[in-house]
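user: can you give me the structure for this one chain? tokens are fine.
assistant: on it. calling the predictor now.
[tool input]
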Amino acid sequence: MFVPWLAFALVWCTGVSHAEVATRECVYYNDNWRTEKTNQSGFERCEGEKDKRLHCYASWLNSTGTIRLVKKGCWLDDFNCYDRQECVATEESPQVFFCCCEGNYCNEKFTHLPEAIAPAVKIQPPQPGPSLFGILVYSLLPLAILSLALVLACWTYHQRKPPYRHVDIGQDAGLPPPSPLVGLKPLQLLELKARGRFGCVWKAQLLSEYVAVKIFPIQDKQSWQNERDIYLTEGFKHENILHYISAEKRGTNLQMELWLVTEFHERGSLTDYLKGNVVSWPQLCHISASMSRGLAYLHEDLPYRAEGPKPAIAHRDFKSKNVLLKMDLTAVIADFGLAVRFEPGKPPGDTHGQVGTRRYMAPEVLEGAINFQRDSFLRIDMYALGLVLWELVSRCTASDGPVGEYQLPFEEEVGQHPSLEDLQDAVVHKKMRPVFKDCWVKHQGLSQLCETIEECWDHDAEARLSAGCVEERISTISKSNNTLNTSTSECLLSMLTSHSDTDLPPKDSST
């Protein structure tokens, strides 16, 4: 309010009324300010000191929209008029308007522009920084949640596992609770018979019959589905192929299990049978012929049949563990979780090379040099068939020598648990094969069978025999040796008869 009151004082000091005031503008002249009267002739000099700056000013009244000038002139300014090029009053609504500026005739025009009052800024106090406790909570909370989730998952996994999952083969499994129905027929698990890579096999009762139930965990769904699809192949039925009954899903979500129900054979696998039993020559021929017959049917492509075309199928995990025995020792082939079909015009599906049981892998499988063609996969099965035939010969009583304890192929050469590198070195690089005993070669039938075995596991895959050829050879060997044995038996019988019919010399009579 200082400037308006000062202007009012100036008006009062001059003693000039509003109507009589002469308007003056400021002009800088000879380093001094002077006032020019615009309504009179001549100049009225406004002296000032050279060390101080002089400015122009104007004061006026604004009554009901009518501007009435009060005073214009020079002003020895010691306050806020520096560097102002225009004369502008900034007070909001004063009694007398006043403005000042710097420059010639800068007060010729004057105006009123009140300064805009900026709204008050509310200064927010600074936010407090996070506390150490908060930092620890936010840091450890994700770890705590993750740990809780892992514990919960482990607990759920152990809770969902049925009791029979923890039973070893040598333990008494007991009777599990009643199972759901198979085709509206009650199915009751009875006894755990085997445990393998893709699940476990149970003996079960379906009405009055025994069946085998192979149970896959949910993570092995692909193997279960593949085996089911192989069994459901059109026209896939043979006396030397395990009879399929059904495939089912049991439970939901994490508790789901996959069941495969098949025919049950009390004698179990060929491996288990050879561990506890020896075989005679006729038994060896019967098992070998039926086993090779089943493999020949598996490999055969039968496009023209009344019951539907059957594609060629490679087993890819052929071994004595996957050959089951009926009560009369007829062999049936089982476990088609890795099998692959070769249908005309369709891709064979999953054909990863290095699959199967390591001990039974062919040389080309061990070194990863497989030709992904149908015949290449069938020849891999033939290599494994040679090893299984060797297992049979090693437990046969036909030779004159002793029968040793049952051994897996290459167990003597590389041990019971060989690594892939061990087998690569023995089978691929050194071209080793299980050894034939001398007493086997001395028996005519075993000697011929050993020659067939050698042609099955030949290092050159293309030189291996087919399953159908092996079946014919075994049949021929069996017949020829049975004829030889029959003729030999008849010769011995005739010799005994002739000796018994010869009259004994009479006893000397006493005289």
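assistant: here you go. The longest helix spans residues 467-501. Residues 268-484 form a domain with the Transferase(Phosphotransferase); domain 1 fold (CATH 1.10.510.10).
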